[in-house]
Write a structure and sequence with these properties.
alpha/beta, 38% helix, 134 residues, five-stranded parallel beta sheet, Rossmann fold
Length: 134
């Protein structure tokens, strides 16, 4: 795989910036990153670009977890990593029940871990730098 195409769906510009920094540190030029602030914006971007993975806020207003379901229906073959500022087994179950392949706390995405996390859901992508799990 040449460049990994990632769509981040999150209403927080600050969280997007942190994800962007983490991806740049972990992967450099091997990643192309887009940002959608809403499900509607994500739908438009998905129609225009074939993403390898979607990183999606689990509690995107006003939808809540149903935002994952809506995005999954638009791109059923694209793996979704649900993220939240909170972490618990219940949130993992909610994320997976709504169509996510994986759930991670936003704090798990830093420190170079994000490359390994992406490799868990994108089979063609490997990042041997870390073996992080959510």
């Amino acid at each position: 795989m040449s460049t990994l195409k990632v769509l981040v769906v999150d209403d927080s510009v600050g969280d997007f910036r942190l994800i962007n920094i983490s991806l740049e540190q972990a992967m450099g030029d091997e990643v192309s990153l887009d940002h959608a602030l809403s499900v509607d914006a994500a739908a438009q971007m998905i129609r225009e670009t074939d993403y390898d993975v979607i990183v999606h806020d689990l509690f995107l207003p006003p939808w809540g977890p149903e935002a994952i379901t809506a995005t999954y229906k638009i791109a059923p073959s694209t793996p979704i990593i649900a993220i939240s500022g909170q972490s618990s087994p219940d949130l993992h179950r909610i994320a997976v029940a709504n169509g996510a392949k994986l759930f991670c706390s936003k704090s798990d995405l830093g420190g170079g871990n994000i490359g390994s996390i992406l490799a868990q859901v994108v089979p063609a992508f490997t990042n041997p730098a870390s073996d992080a799990n959510c």
